[in-house]
Structure formats: structure tokens, C-alpha cells
Amino acid sequence: MSDRVRLDETEQWQALRAHREEIGEPPLRELFRADPDRGRRYALESGDLYIDYSRHLVTDETLRLLRELAEARDVAGLRDAMFAGKKINVTENRAVLHVALRAPRDAVIEVDGKNVVPEVHAVLDKMAAFAERVRSGEWKGHTGKPIRTVVNIGIGGSDLGPKMAYEALKPFSDRSRDFRYVSNVDGADLHENIRDLDPAETLFIVSSKTFTTVETITNATSARRWLLSALGDDAAVARHFVAVSTNTEQVAKFGIDPANMFEFWDWVGGRYSLDSAIGLSLMIAIGPERFREFLDGFHLIDEHFRTAPPERNAPFLLGLLGLWYDDFHGAQTHAVLPYSHYLSRFTDYLQQLDMESNGKSVDRQGERVDWDTGPVVWGTPGTNGQHAYYQLLHQGTKLIPADLIGFARPLEELGELADQHDLLMANLFAQGQALAFGKTAEEVAAEGVAPELVPHRTFPGNRPTTTILANELTPSVLGQLIALYEHKVFVQGAIWNINSFDQWGVELGKALAKRLEPQLTAATADTSDLDGSTATLVERYRTLRGR
Ligand code: F6P
Hints:
GO terms for molecular function: isomerase activity. The chain is an alpha/beta fold. The protein is built from 22 helices and 13 strands.
């Protein structure tokens, strides 16, 4: 038996449990009536982000108890260990240093006694030089044509980040070029993305930390075949393929010249790698200067997280509020609802960040946890969701905490369409209002609604939301938002005592697929070693394929 202190046996956890019983679900209407200043008091600023957390089912006492829990679990200690380059990813014996990727040039962050910041900046400089060559047209394809389309081939952390950020920052991108993202091993993904392209004008960035991920290597191999069948010369690969990886050997084995490889390091987790060389496609799209602004945005929140006291520390606060619902209200999911079309892929990105990090059920010592860990993260941009699933948010039986994210200013390039922005934001504010305060049966009846319809038209309210408001969706603000969520996830993992930095849960499916593939394709297959369900499905599949 280890001598670890179980989270649910700590006095701080017990105090929170007792407090939860005592206050129940305090009506937000009452909380605001009792404290007219709550909207201002329960808000904080972190970088350019204004965060309103007044519509949560918490009192000053709740927040104090939650902070005491964070203190007892030494979240600040683990945070400092991360920033100091300690190997806090205990199951892989690795440092966790995505914060070094956005550190300024003169910063010193050591791993095993070596300052990694100069290497980070050397790669950033190499990326910038390459990005400028592509952007200026100086980098030419094999036949002498400039590059018109950049296709990133990667999956998971090697895809979701750059794809999301490219969509988010499209207005800052070079509109004369097209940027595409291929991830799915379903050939349809590659097909749809290259069918209208001229190979002579296409650059593939093969992005893979390990360079062994089957989806990525399969797609990259097919893309190379497509390119060579058009250009007919192996030498073309060097002008049309570059790699982003930690694995020089595999990159060379694939046939990409290591001179065309952009490196990163094992202390960068896949889902934390967007601001490493994995962001190369984004840098080509928005240019090195904007990319630096993006990294500076991350760094601003890193510094806030590192130095702000817990009561004014946004990642602490958001982490603790999430935990309050997960562990003391039985909430199973968390909705992220951006009121910005440009953030249409933001929630997809957060799914990996949060669920791959905190979807764990054993603690750092390998013992089963008896408390709920990471929630299911989901959501799509408002106002589309309002006409789909918000019904359940407002009147369903489940408590679903949500983040509403919006921006004061529309992007300039929208021109006349910018007039629609006030309506968009009115929707954001109205949804937070409706979710929090609802509409009572008395209020509904007073409108003359037929008595039998009153229950149907009543809104219970008390559905918690955080509103995150910024001036404009710039590269810096996007970096700030991402770092906010990264550190929120960190705070929660630290309290739950789980390792947020490994992902063993993805391995079993990979191994089984590798074993099954020959049984689908071989001329004859022996399925007797399979379980009854899989054997039947494989046999049915083979019949349908005429095998
Ligand atoms: O299978 C999960 C995973 O390992 C992610 O953590 C990672 O982001 C993704 O696969 C891609 O891995 P790689 O960058 O090594 O191809």
C-alpha cells in the first residue's frame, strides 16, 4: 500500500462535501439579490481576457474551500515543478514543458541541466525562414512553380491544433494560398483534400511527433504516390514534402531529407504541441510575426498562471469551478460554446486537450481513484447550438456547466457584415442570462399563458456558465485562450492526483486494429481466436467485400 493521502479523505474534501450539503444549489436569483455587486466582484482579468464567473452555484465560502483544497493538494508546487522542467510526467519519465515553447528568447528553462530555450528559438527561426520562403514564392516546387496549397498531414495533436488555429486566424492569413488538413485514415479525407490540387503547386507537411502513427504514415505514403505519379521523379519529394517530428531516423526512413525536418522534443506532449514546429502550417498562413504574437499570448497567461495568487488566478479558478460540478454536483459533461464562427474547431481541439489529459481512472501512484475525473467536453459555436441542443441545457434534467466565449469587436474584413455582430453578442449575453435566472411559473402565468402550458414554458434557471469576453480574436488572444484551458486542465489533474500527460488509453485500440487488419484482407482468415462478436463482424465484412 502506498502512503498517499486519498483525495476524498482529506479534510478539505470533507469540508466541501459538508458545504455542498449545507448550501444545496443556491438560487442564483437570490445570490444576486443579496449581493448586487456580484457581477463585478466575481469577475477577473487575465491578459486580455475578461472572465465573469458570477453565474456559478458558489458563494465566497465555496470559493474559499475550493482554494483550500488546491492548497492542500499543492497545485502550486506541481505547477512550479512543471515550469522548472521537473519530470512530472511520471509514467513516461518526461518533463512537461510546453511553456518553454513560448518563452522569450532570453528565458532560461532547464531540462536535465540544459537550457532548452535556445533550441526552441533555433527551430522557430528555421521555421520562420522557411515560412517566408514559401510565402514570398521563393520556395518553388519541382517544376519551378510556387506553392499554392499547403497540406498538413497529421492526427490528434499533430492536426487539431494547427487546423483549429488556422480556422480561427483565417482573417490574418495569406488569402492567396490554401491550407488544408488531412488526418483520417479513411482515404476519403486525403481524396477530398487533394482531388482539385495541382501536385506541382502543393507542399505536404507531414506532422507526427513519433513519425510512427499509422494514419499519418499511410496518408503521407499515399500523398507521395500521388505526387510522384504526376511529377514522375523521386527528386520531387524534397521540394514537396517537409516533416515535423521528434524522430529524425523515421523521417529519413520515410524519404524526407532531415534538412527539411523541423524538430521538437519529447517534453512536448502531442496535445500541447501547437506552438512547437507542429504549428508550421499556421506560421506559413499567418506569417512569423503574427505567429510570435500568438506565442506571446500563451506566454502572457503562463506568467499569470505562474505568479497570480489563487484567488485572482484564472486557471485555478476555472479548474476549481469545473471540479465543483464534476465531483460535488455529479455533472458529467462540460460545454464550450464559442460565439465566434472562427472558433468553430475550438471545442474539437479542447476535447483532446482535456479528455486525453484527464480521462484517467488511476492516480499517479497507480491506484484506482474514487472520485470523478475529467468531464466529457463538447459544444459547437453559438448560435447554431441554440437551435439544436440548448433545449436540453435549459430544460433538461442534467446539470451542464458551460463556457460562453465572445468578442467585443468583429473582424474588420467583415465590412457591412460586421453589423450582425451585436445580434450575435446579444445572443451570448441572453443565453447566459436565461440559463442562470430562468423564468418562474409565476412569470410565465403573468404573461397570460394557458395554465396547462405553464410547466412547459417555465425555465428552472440555475444553470452555471462562465463568460469569457475579449476585445477581438487576434493571434495573441487565441494564444491566451488556449493557455487558459491548458492550465485549467493542469489544475484539475493536480487535484485529482492523476497524470495529465500520458495517454495509455489510446494504445489498446491501436494494437487490436493492427492485429485485425490482416484478418480483413487475407485470402482466407481464421477468426477462431476472436471473441464471438468481433468474429461475426469480421466474417460479415469479408462476405460483403467478397472475400
Ligand atoms: O493516439 C493518440 C496520440 O498519441 C496523441 O496523443 C497524439 O497527439 C496523436 O496520437 C498523434 O501522434 P503523433 O504526433 O506521434 O503522430
